[in-house]
Amino acid sequence: MSFWTRFRSNTGAMIGVVLLIAVIAVALFAPLIFEHSPWQMVQRPFLAPFAVDGLPLGTDTLGRDVASQLAYGARVSLLVGLVSTLVALLIGVPLGALAGFYGGYVDEGAMRFTEFFQTIPNFALAIVLVAIFEPSLASITLAIAIVSWPPVARLVRAEVMSVRKREFVDAATLAGLSKPRILIRQVLPNTVSPIIVMASLMVATAILLESSLSFLGLGDPNAMSWGYMIGAARTVIRSSWWLSFFPGIAIIITVLALNLIGEGLNDALNPHLSRKGRA
Amino acid sequence: MSVFAIIAARLAKAALTLLCIAVLNFCLLHAAPGDPAVVLAGEAGAADEQMIEQLRERFGLDQPFGVQLWKYVSGVAQLDLGYSFRQGAPVIELIADRLPATLLLTGAAFVISLVCGIALGVAAAARVGKPQDSLLTTFALLFYATPLYWAALMAVLVFSVWLGWLPGFGYETVGAGYTGMARIIDIAQHLVLPALTLGLFFMAVYMRMTRASMLEVSTADFVKTARAKGLSDAVIRRRHILRNAILPVVTLAGLQAGQLIGGAVLTETVFAWPGIGRLMFESLAARDYNTILGVFLVSAAMVIAFNIVTDIVYRLVDPRIGARA
Amino acid sequence: MSTLAIEHLTIGLPEGADRPFAVEDVSMTIDKGQILCVVGESGSGKSMTANALMGLLPPGVTVKAGRAMFESRDVIRLPDAEKMALRGAQIAMIFQEPMTALNPLMRIGDQIAEVFAAHDRFTQAERRKKALDLIREVQLPDPEKIIRAYPFQLSGGQRQRAMIAMALALEPKLLIADEPTTALDVTTQAQILKLILDLRARRGMAVMFITHDFGVVAEIADEVIVMRTGKVVERGPARAVLQDPQHEYTKRLLEAIPTGKLPPARALSETPALQIKGLRKIYRTGGGMFRAPREVRAVDDVSLSVARGEVLGLVGESGSGKSTLGRTAVRLVTPDAGQVLVGGVDLAALSDEDLRRQRHKVQMVFQDPYASLNPRQRIIGAITDGPIARGIPRREAESRARELLEIVGLGADAASRFPHEFSGGQRQRIGIARALAMDPELIIADEAVSALDVSIQAQVLDLLRDLREKMGLSILFITHDLRVAAQLCDRIAVMQKGRLVEIGTVHEIFLNPTEDYTRQLLAAVPGADWDNQKVLA
């Protein structure tokens, strides 16, 4: 069975794909769907959902359109999730690959470094970094990347070490290929599947991290985000619970979609289940 | 290697790690935009000219970088984490004051999440492919995707505001003047919602891990051996599969300790739980960097201590490690 | 009356498998005190038959028809509770992989005592005593210590003994042994086979012994059943089947088995292709702040040479250092001392950059056909990478690669395919083509046929023999299997614990070994006596 057949036969993964496509569509077309910017006051504050036509989710503490805020919030979540994961991969993959491939002192040094970052409570570090460097999309993305790369490095290192022991790597050495070339052309391509799986799950975690930072008031003041919405509505939860409720649902849907996709990828890329039933 | 040698080696490593974090803290203070002395003093006019001058002197801010670093790090080594001008107290005192509440909260959440997570994971693995398994895995997937602070808010809304079953705010009933057992019960009641919401996410993590690990181990050769001996499924699951399957969960739990403390910042913020997480949140708004970095250092120390404990537990459970290392 | 009678057993595979039945209409009987060998290559259904008896079939695999009568009950259709009571008490089983068949977190004594507990026999103290007795019976050293040991503290052979102790705990009437010696060294294998023979004699139990190795059959079988793709192709008393096989497939299997028949000696050239002088490699492991490292002398002062056009067999058990020697000779491992001279160049002394340019001189064919090709690279790439890195134009390298694929019997169209489209034997052919593409002075074959089924093994050996004749190849042939070495090699070198014990022509080593260890090895070869008869006949 090919990868696509396996992936498509996974109901959870397909639900995840549909949900994610919906979220991406909303993020992309937010300016077309909503005439008001998420910052613009459109009605009186604290309007309940469906109380006024055109404002299906009501208004927030400052009379802004909650539905529009949700749509624009999707942009921030997806953007920060994606970019921070890419940056984390840029740090983690080379570091893990070098450590796993060259071993010895390189490995020792790289792993001490990684271990150090893994010991530090990652959310606390993210808070410190964003607080010190002033909240902005760039500082948030970078902070999330800085706290997310250690697992990548460890995974890539473990994968590279296991692939490096396979005999085709010896064969490449005997063919007179240079070490960097063996690492890039022979070893790394065989570690791609687990990295893809991890990356898809990391985007989900990054979205949760971003929303948590925004919730604490460490969001970019110029970007509407789901965490900020919940944080701002926290004090009025008794009277206007929906202001906190809907952004939370948006986060859950997005994160769930990514997790489902990640699991589907994992099952499709590592089909050890299909090996059952041999004579 | 004897257990003591291992502990000694781990403690030495822990000290080194903390030293590195102190250096990192120092670098962060200097990387912050603005005059370090002003940064240290905190914003919002808490510091006057004279105080900033004092700070400059104390931290040798007019001296070379190396000297400053030495002063800072040796201060940390003597548990001097600086002074919070916002709160008008040494940071270490603020933290010591708040630490018990955090330890109580994270400890309770950890125990709940680990015990429930493993139990549910075992239950799901035993019924793999059946409706109960699907139900459990779906719930785990949902909790895994739910932001901690949102779950906390919703818990307050439902169980405290709407149903009125449990207190949703604070550590104990202020002004009630409970003592002895009554106070313990009062605190326990306040603890329920924060500990559960903090534990929920990690419970999902441990459950998924336990389930996967149980399924993986159940295909191992020695399980077939156990079956060939005529052991019952229940005995095989308990004695052979679970004991082996739990090792990776312990490892993961050790690695997750840091996240648990990160989660405490959010949970304590929502529930106004007077722990170091809440302290950090309050300091964020006040830009009280000394306190933020102090909490950061102490939380890292907690994680390190926790890792040493899990490491020792792991050695007790797995006979292979002590012999090999 | 027979202990076990399997009648018309048919086992169905799940949908989507390569064939509908794992086992089809198989019947067999085993009498009290008899050893029945079920012989077949991988995929023959021999293990499935055993698993069906134990109720250990994998999910999706089910018994479709037939029955298995044991003590006048059909064990296949017993209720689960009765099956459980039967397992371990009346029918016991031991497995192929002693390294993974024991629970790593439980002491050996507890794992044995657990059998008694499962069947509710004896008190705690008695269980312990019984476990000690069993450990003594399977001749494990220092029973008091073994009982408290964890599996990782035991060697492979010791673990298999512990497994046997567990199987014997409740004096079963039938012992099923599923390739129990395949993962062991020959001398250990010989000991375990002898133990099983002894126990059979002492306890009078019936044994169903599953194996792929006719040598083992010759050692222990009373009766033989030969299986192929789920069907029985031949059955009969061991002697009859071995000496006068009736079915074509059995004949092929027996012929394919490297027997002790020695090929005629060939005249060897004087010029050496490879000279190894005083080679040493020491591995240090463990060491840390608080303890001295453990030293293993993997290769300890070894000197030997391979003449141009010669095949030198390098034989030894696991841990003898034969593989390290091979890897040092191609400098995948850098030796601590000594020289590796190929065409006048000392590979051991070259710098990394110079080495890369000289790599082509010695090439290697690897053991695991599934690990020796990059799953993400087309065959043509695997073969031409080396020549292109040497500066041969791509077009030329590719046409040579196609030519080589023809020579190794695959056809040029194999070039554009990926490794997963090939079987194990075909992959080894690709590996050989890859080595030849570099025009090496010497090829090192490291257990190159060990992972293959015997009939495939024979084909690859034929290919190597053919290439030796046609191209005048020099080969250092590393193997644990003396029978294989005898078929192909001109001379044989025997290694033990890093040292070269003996080196001589195949005839010298097989007929007049001078060292005790060589004699031990020869005696341990399963079916050695039977082979000798053939040599004499």
Mean pLDDT of chain A: 88
Morphology of chain B: globular
Let me know the largest β-sheet of chain B: 2 strands, antiparallel
Q: What is the number of helical segments of chain B per DSSP (H or I, 4+ residues)?
A: 13
Strand content of chain A: under 5%
Shape of chain A: elongated
Verbal overview:
The complex is a heterotrimer of chains A (279), B (325) and C (537). By secondary structure, chain A is mostly helical. Chain A is built from 11 helices and no strands. The longest helix of chain A is centred in the N-terminal third of the chain and has 37 residues. The two termini of chain A are 19 Å apart. The C terminus of chain A is likely disordered. Chain B has 325 residues and is mainly alpha-helical. A two-stranded antiparallel ribbon of chain B has the order 1-2. In chain B, helix 1 packs across helix 4, helix 5 packs across helix 8 and helix 7 packs across helix 8. Chain B starts with a helix and ends with a helix. Chain C has 537 residues and is an alpha/beta fold. Chain C has 20 helices and 20 strands. In chain C, helix 3 crosses helix 4, helix 4 crosses helix 6 and helix 14 packs across helix 15. Chain C starts with a strand and ends with a helix. Chains in contact: A-B, A-C, B-C. Chains A and B meet through helix 4, helix 5, helix 9 and helix 11 of A and helix 1, helix 6, helix 7, helix 10 and helix 11 of B.
